């Protein structure tokens, strides 16, 4: 997950940085610094944030030539 994907996913979910921090059980400073590209948290920390976002119904789209993105997961696909 990229910092931009994190920001975009929160926007779709109408989550604040505090909301993501609470869901992922990390500090809001960790979320803020990651999204503002001021630090690179450990991979495991980003993975926890990513799993929380995905559990809330967001699909993170890899670049595959067209750029990273986010979207709501199709409930029919799973």
TrEMBL record:
CDD domains for this protein: HTH_XRE (cd00093)
What superkingdom heads the lineage? Bacteria
InterPro entries per UniProt: Cro/C1-type_HTH, Lambda_DNA-bd_dom_sf
Instruction: Provide the GO MF annotations for this entry.
Output: DNA binding
Q: Which residues form the HTH cro/C1-type domain?
A: 7-41
Q: What is this protein called?
A: XRE family transcriptional regulator
């Amino acid at each position: 997950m990229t910092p931009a994907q994190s920001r975009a996913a929160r926007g779709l979910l109408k989550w604040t940085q505090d909301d993501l921090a609470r869901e992922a059980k990390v500090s809001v400073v960790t979320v803020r610094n990651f999204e503002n590209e001021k630090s690179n948290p450990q991979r495991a920390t980003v993975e926890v944030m990513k799993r929380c976002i995905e559990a809330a119904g967001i699909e993170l789209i890899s670049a595959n030539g067209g750029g990273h993105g986010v979207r709501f997961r199709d409930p029919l696909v799973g």
